[in-house]
Amino acid sequence: MQLAExxxxxxxxxxxxxPVVIPLAAMEQHGRHLPLATDSLLCAEVLRRAEERxxxxxxxxxxxxxxxxxxxxxxxxxxxxxxxTYLDLLNDVLxxxxxxxxxxxxxxxxxxxxxxxxxxxxxxxxxxxxxRSDLLLLLTTYWALGSKPQEIExxxxxxxxxxxxxxxxxxxxxLRPDLVGDYQSxxxxxxxxxxxxxxxxxxxxxxxxxxxxxNPSAATAVKGEKLLSIFADDAVAMLERVMAWRAP
Amino acid sequence: MQLAExxxxxxxxxxxxxPVVIPLAAMEQHGRHLPLATDSLLCAEVLRRAEERxxxxxxxxxxxxxxxxxxxxxxxxxxxxxxxTYLDLLNDVLxxxxxxxxxxxxxxxxxxxxxxxxxxxxxxxxxxxxxRSDLLLLLTTYWALGSKPQEIExxxxxxxxxxxxxxxxxxxxxLRPDLVGDYQSxxxxxxxxxxxxxxxxxxxxxxxxxxxxxNPSAATAVKGEKLLSIFADDAVAMLERVMAWRAP
Amino acid sequence: MQLAExxxxxxxxxxxxxPVVIPLAAMEQHGRHLPLATDSLLCAEVLRRAEERxxxxxxxxxxxxxxxxxxxxxxxxxxxxxxxTYLDLLNDVLxxxxxxxxxxxxxxxxxxxxxxxxxxxxxxxxxxxxxRSDLLLLLTTYWALGSKPQEIExxxxxxxxxxxxxxxxxxxxxLRPDLVGDYQSxxxxxxxxxxxxxxxxxxxxxxxxxxxxxNPSAATAVKGEKLLSIFADDAVAMLERVMAWRAP
Amino acid sequence: MQLAExxxxxxxxxxxxxPVVIPLAAMEQHGRHLPLATDSLLCAEVLRRAEERxxxxxxxxxxxxxxxxxxxxxxxxxxxxxxxTYLDLLNDVLxxxxxxxxxxxxxxxxxxxxxxxxxxxxxxxxxxxxxRSDLLLLLTTYWALGSKPQEIExxxxxxxxxxxxxxxxxxxxxLRPDLVGDYQSxxxxxxxxxxxxxxxxxxxxxxxxxxxxxNPSAATAVKGEKLLSIFADDAVAMLERVMAWRAP
Amino acid sequence: MQLAExxxxxxxxxxxxxPVVIPLAAMEQHGRHLPLATDSLLCAEVLRRAEERxxxxxxxxxxxxxxxxxxxxxxxxxxxxxxxTYLDLLNDVLxxxxxxxxxxxxxxxxxxxxxxxxxxxxxxxxxxxxxRSDLLLLLTTYWALGSKPQEIExxxxxxxxxxxxxxxxxxxxxLRPDLVGDYQSxxxxxxxxxxxxxxxxxxxxxxxxxxxxxNPSAATAVKGEKLLSIFADDAVAMLERVMAWRAP
Amino acid sequence: MQLAExxxxxxxxxxxxxPVVIPLAAMEQHGRHLPLATDSLLCAEVLRRAEERxxxxxxxxxxxxxxxxxxxxxxxxxxxxxxxTYLDLLNDVLxxxxxxxxxxxxxxxxxxxxxxxxxxxxxxxxxxxxxRSDLLLLLTTYWALGSKPQEIExxxxxxxxxxxxxxxxxxxxxLRPDLVGDYQSxxxxxxxxxxxxxxxxxxxxxxxxxxxxxNPSAATAVKGEKLLSIFADDAVAMLERVMAWRAP
Lengths: 248, 248, 248, 248, 248, 248
Hints:
Shape of chain A: globular
Number of strands of chain A: 5
Helix content of chain A: 25-40%
Oligomer: homohexamer
Strand order of the largest sheet of chain A: 2-1-3-4
Largest sheet of chain A: 4 strands, parallel
Structural class of chain A: alpha/beta
Mean pLDDT of chain A: 97
Order of helices and strands of chain A: HEHEHEHEHHEH
Strand content of chain A: 5-15%
């Protein structure tokens, strides 16, 4: 169900154990060849496919396309909530659903830069409501729900998600080819950072002058369909588990 | 132009005097008969019509559907950024466009509750960049751009915008009749507050138990088309003036 | 009653339905010819006249002369609370009166720059105390309480309040002529902003190099007396309505 | 000079080495017998006497009567800025005078509860402007400027300032006897706290049920004149030293 | 080198490319059998061993034992910085070393709950200093530097770090057996959370009533020595890489 | 008792009237001759001696070596929490012990720069818990607990504590002579500030180019032992009074 299309009265009648899915993405540079909305379009598509199969069993909030994207600000057009504003925004959104009585809240993320603040936000929210024992506050990033695409689809050259990369470009070729520019001439850019497995504070120019990270020239629409399909399956499986969860 | 569909490289090539239009709306209760997305759908439609006529002369950001809606939290499903979070969010968004070099930023608002914080945000932003003399930071609410609909269309029974009212219901009947519930049996609710012209801090239950404010039963799709048309004309005229503006 | 002159024990004995009037003004540049305290002196005078007629039926707090005046900081001497500090200050003051049990709180404002943050503050305060149904939280700006002075007194050349303008200079000529400098040689400066009715984020140098906005050279003490009289009448009428208000 | 009565243009012509005196006080309970404005009235009087002798050599801002008074909130009518708001307010006020180019800023305090936050504020402000070597940021509390009144006037029974005590009541008897209630029947209340010299976080009910701390029944107008005279002398001497100070 | 034991003048003479190691841990409940300082003692020991081999090539700050431990507050004695305070604290500490000119800052972490906020802090710090291209801002958690202990030491029953678990208890048996209580009678508690790989906002009682997570009864001092040795080797290797890093 | 070495279960069994001693110090420049940890080492030693005599009657938290030291940031290596972060940190630490049920909390301070923020923190904490009447929230600075060392030990040339001065250098000569550099050739630097008794916002370069304040060349280990002994006696006496305190 799309929260946006329901009246308040209809939502009030839903069982409060219904999972609320809160999609998060970004509006940020995606290299020379992809539009700013890439993360938002892909996250929405994965969730659209999942929702088709879950029907009225989950309540889907509108996708919050404004993300934690300050690291891309050197690239024109990138929109971003500052780091603390983004934390506050996530906390507030979680809080309003708790106010309404919902107990299973799933941040359904489609932008790497949102991962850390979203973990921080569910941590903070759990602490504020520490007397409750019936809450399930989750962060799921759609490409990190269990499946390893490169094992399923050996033609994939990347082993993990990058940025404006083989994976994202493939999915965009499948979903909105009209918005994809010349990706075939782009050079691959390393996905690893020099000090891994240490975590590093970075901005995009530390890693890529052009904007993408990974290998967009390896993209195909067929790979894109495969990826969308895998991620949608994973999303369905995860949301089924959320529904099956019972508070201890 | 839709920012969301452009690449960062395409945006970087735009003239920096291009107005950036940042649509703001809400995801909040709209009575028994309208969906939570009402403000967002209507604001988007007004702007869609305006943009058609302005073509490549304005850059339109995605609509920020999360608004300043705490006053509706008694009604299930309402999503809201807390008052200070909303101020921060608007400041951050304005700031990122200033970072990118744009100079004419228009908050294009479609939710009454956003009016005060958006004024506060453009004030705060102007102060932070007080050494600049080439900035135009605006807040426009689409139904307050000059035209008085009730003078143009005497069949309108309301003299001003309400909430889930004759005007909004009419426009929804024109735009998304599939999302409009029974509005004909709803009682009118006064649009005035008891201490006007004093401003009053309020929550919706102070004014309406059912959720709407105004007279939804007077709505028709024909009135809706008229309203959308008036508001789109006003938006075009305002944006033309923004383009014609010259810094003193 | 002046809160400042009462003991805590005397205030504790007042009926809690007594309106608390919290005067707000500013300490900011008023052009070449008027002192920084202009807004504070005029707001106090309007309220003094009103209070004389209301006697013990309202509790008047001391005037908070520190306002939201960052837009005047290019002009020497201007004192200002930063935008967020001013919001916090208003929230705290409202909160202390709620702590003491008073239920009808009136921000009585005499500075245009306070209007938006005061609206924000009463909104925020109402949200925090949303379980209450007996609160009346108001913002009134003394020249916007209903009367249109230029209709009552046709000799007025301005149609609305400006800054260090015909209206303010007239009232100062009536109240403190010793503090008024040469106003007769000052050029009129437009009161309208170029993009109205859009709201614009501004600093004073965007509108006036000299500091006043409007037409101070048209001022007379007779006009000033008329204005003070109109505004005091309006204030009395509004406060009578506050006393007559009954929670729904 | 009273900043409030000057125009911005007059202030702009002052030498920037002129000390700016920023009086701070409170609007808080003062027991059964004194009005809420006691601290503000007394601080203003001490400074009025000092200013008479310093003439145009110091610039005196209006007295900020809203203080850090949360510890008195159990007593009706007490107005207070919350602890962090008060810090922000002081920082903002100091900042605006630095913006205007003044270099010698004196917080002239008349409320014990302002002492710690004012020290914190001048510390914070000095850190923000650490590249400057010409700033003098001071906090002075008027009864702690050097003289020991009980050594000068042996009839004083208190050895230090209390609250609504012998000293404050005496000065009020001298200044505004019309605002002083029955003080002669009040019992003395210890001025010491049990764990001194350790500092203790306290609220007034920890120390006094009635509201005063010290011995108001020992007050006389003659003592009051003596105290005001001593404190005004001290203030003059301190401000002379501020004027004589030379940056290292 | 221990920063704590050096004078400011000695530190000023160090090459600014010297890595600064900032150890982070916690002071929080560790079940029935381990002291609150467990994370701090172990992190310090791993770093002590590493520092012995790195000698004067790294500058080691004192260990910040106050961590992000709100999730353990149900257990008496746990000390914690609130989530935002902890973020601020980390940002401030990073900022002071940047002020001093150091360019390679390593948060060396020994508490799982610090991982997310430390990632957030290095992200925020990198954004604030985005004009710099010579900064290396890292977070390393000592048990996640590359080696998989259970592959090296097959006698380990746990496959990853828990809390007051086989691994921590083993290291404490090696380091401070005098502080280890009865661990042999403790039941194992699952290390997995029900919705993995989704991240979940949790407090300790969601996972463990007794306080430990994992299998402390499998601990031995021999395993502890092996773990400390592995982690110290990893730390040395990582810090060597930090020294070898060259800005792009 | 050292909180760090106890298990949560052991702490849970302590009487809640047990005083919790929270040592605060700093990690900041101490001139040419003393290490950054000076304040932390000395505060810890005073408390170690006191604790030996108080045994299980007080619960001692680990020493927070990160202090309010921004005024020393011109000197390399100084670590500091920003002014507001430090306030938050102290509030959070006090809050966690209140959460655990302890009622007598003593900030045991060994750094002058912590004095004002610690007073602010206990004030803020007392206000938040104003319904309680059984709380004792104290700040004690170890050299300001009553004794006047220069009266007891006439060979002391300083009359009060400075910074890296006769007193601190003497104590370090007694405690860690290996960490003391050449102090005998250092010139004395005045301990008074020019505008005393007014409080002044300062940074170290306002007072000392080299870093110390006072007369380190007068230091001896014998004086150091005397000082440590006096301060430990004072600490014991104060903590005995804390234990003897009864809520009114």
